C-alpha cells in the first residue's frame, strides 16, 4: 500500500538534503527533493539511488567472525549472533584495557561528510571518552584539521566550519579548494541563487570545476601553492588600503610589538615577499587577476568564504589556511550579515562526553610530534595510527564505518598496520578492503532503516531552527542494526550503562532534547520536523572578544611561535618538479585529485544507477599533454608516481594547466549488475590512487597528508605494456 511521501532527509553526505520518501507495500521506492525543507531544493544522483543502496544484494546482513589468519586469501567468515559478537568485542576491549591501558584501544569512524555516521558520531565520541581512550581517528587530517586549527590559532574558533558562509546576504562569495556542486549540494543551490541576485563569486581551483564556470574570478592556482596566492592578495589589499582599518585596529593584534616592530609591519613585510608578478610565477595565476580579485574582495564585501579539501590535503595545509584566515580578517566580514556567521543553535544537552575527559588521561598518539595538532583534542591521524599500530602502542581498533586502507595514502602500509592489531572490529554496510582485515564485522543499517535526531541544519538561522527526528522508512534488512544501537549495546556490555541510559536510546534523546522544550512525541508526530525560533546575533566578539590568548584576531600567533612554528602565515613549495629537480625528468607533471560527483569517496561503485554514469576510474589531463604522449580521450593510461603505478582512463580537460593532472581515489569495487569490473586495492593492476600516494611529508602542525600535490607521469598503457614485453 502506498501513502503520502514521508518527510525525511538524506544523510548520505555532508549536504543532508531535506527529502520526501515514497514507501509502498513496505518497500522504500524513491527519494524526492523537499523544497519546503531548508536544505531540500534538490537531491543528487546518490540520494536518488538511496533505495538501490538499501536493497543492494551485497549488503552485510549478519555479524561475521573471521576464522582464518589475517594473511589468508579467504578470511573464512562465519556468521555469529549479535550477542556472541558483542560479548566478544566487550571481552577483548576490557582485557586490552586492563593489560595495556585504555590508550591501547583505538577507535575510528568514517567521516560524517561522506556517510550517515553523522547520525551517531557524537555518541561514538561519548563511548570513546567514557571508555577512556584518547585515540580517535576520523579522517580529519584529510579534510578538516587545517580548517579547524588555522582559524583556532587565528580567530579562536573554526571559520569556516562553525562559522558558515551567509550565502543569502553575501556581497562576495569566495570558494577556495571547494566545489559544492559536487560536494555539498545545499551550498551549490544557495550560491546559484546568490549569484542570480548579484553576489560576486571568486573560485580558486586548479580545475574549472562546478561554479568556477560562473565565477567573476576563477583563479587557476597550481596545486599546493595557495599560500603564496593568499599572501599576494593580502599584499595588494594592504598596499592599496583595501582593508577594514577599524576592525584591524580594534580587533586584531596588528598594533602589538614584537622585537620592536608592530605585527602589522611584520605582516606587511611577509606579504611583500609575494608581489603579484612573483606570486604569478609560483602559482600560475596572472598578476592582473590577483590585483583584480583583491579589489573585488574589498569592493563587494561582506565576503562569505568556504575552503575545503583542495586546501586540506597538503603538507603546508595549516599555514595555507592561516594565510587565508588573515586575508579574511582584513575584509572585516567575520560574524557580520553576509560574512561567515556562527548561527545560533536550538538549546540542547551536549552528549559528546567531553565531561569524561581529564588532564590526567593518557595523551593521544602524535602529541609529541605535533603538540598543537589533532592529538591535543583526542584525535589521531591515519599516519600516526599506522605507526602506533605497527609499534604496538595501539593494539585494538573499533571502527564505525570508514575504509581506512583505501582512504589514506600508502594503502599497503595501512593493510600491514591493520593486520598487526590484536583485535579489530568494523561496523559497515558492505564488505570492503578494510573490513576484510577485521576479526569481527558488524552489519549496520542504512539511514533509511533507522532513526536519528538532528538538531539544526547548520546553513542559516532558518536551517538551524529545524529539529527533525528522521524515522525509519522500512525495517532493517537481515540482522542489521544502527550504529547508534551498536554504540549503546556495546557501552552497556563495557560496564558504561549508567552513562548510556542503560541502553535506552529514547531516554538518551529525551535528555539531549530537554533544554529545547521539544518532546520526542512531538517529533515523532511531525516527521517534517519542529521549528524553534532563533535570532542571530552578529559581531559576538564585541561582547567577549575572540577566544584567542589575546582576545583578538591573531595575525601573528605567539602560540605557534612558542612551539617553533612560523608565527606569520608562510608558503612552502610542495613536492613538485620545482622543489625536486631530481625527480622532474622522470615525473614532470603535478598530480592532484578531486572527488566524484557520482560516488562518495571509496563507496558506491557497486550501485548500477551511479556506476553507469562513471564506469571507470579517470585521470584528467590537458589535451596537449595527452597528445604529446600519444594518449587519446578514453585510453587506459598508467599513472606513475615515485611509489608505483595505477591505471585509469584519460579524460581530456582543456581547463587545466598542461602540467597539472587530476586523479581520482576510491576505485576497488565491482558492479555486477553492469558487469563493470572491480580493481585490486594493491598490486600491479590496481586502480587505487592511494596505493601510489603517501601520508608524508605531513603538515608539521595538523598532520595533513599531502595527497593533492605530488609529481607524476602519465603513459599510454598499451604502449607501456608493449615496451615491458619487449624488454
Ligand atoms: N559527490 C561527493 N560529495 C562529497 C564527497 C564525495 O566523495 N563525493 N565527499 C565528502 C567529503 S568527505 C568531503 S571532505 C567534501 C569535500 O568537498 P570538496 O573539498 O569540495 O571536494 P573536492 O572536489 O575533492 O575538492 C574541491 C576542489 O579542490 C580542488 N583542488 C585540488 N587541489 C587543489 C589545490 O591545491 N588548491 C586548490 N585551491 N584547489 C585544489 C579540486 O579541483 C576540487 O574542485 O565533500 C563531501 N561530499
Ligand atoms: N587520494 C585521496 N584520498 C582521499 C581523499 C581524496 O580527496 N583523495 N579524500 C579523503 C577524505 S576528505 C575523507 S573524509 C576520507 C573518507 O574516508 P572514509 O570515511 O573511509 O569514507 P568512504 O570511503 O566513503 O568509506 C566509508 C565507509 O563507511 C561505510 N559506511 C557508509 N555509511 C555508513 C554508516 O552509516 N555507518 C557505518 N558504520 N558505515 C558506513 C561505507 O560502506 C564505507 O565502507 O577519504 C580521504 N581519502
Ligand atoms: S547531496 Fe546527495 S548524497 Fe548528499 S545529502 Fe544531498 S541527496 Fe544525499
Ligand atoms: Mo572528507
TrEMBL record:
Domain 4Fe-4S Mo/W bis-MGD-type residues, every copy: 3-58
Entry keyword set: Iron, Iron-sulfur, Metal-binding, Molybdenum, Oxidoreductase
An example Gene Ontology molecular-function term: metal ion binding
Superkingdom of the organism of origin: Bacteria
Cofactors named for this entry: Mo-bis(molybdopterin guanine dinucleotide)
Transmembrane stretches, start-end: none
Pfam families hit by this protein: Molybdop_Fe4S4, Molybdopterin, Molydop_binding
CDD domains per the UniProt record, alphabetical: MopB_CT_Acetylene-hydratase
Family: Belongs to the prokaryotic molybdopterin-containing oxidoreductase family.
Protein name per the record: Molybdopterin oxidoreductase
Native organism: Nocardioides guangzhouensis
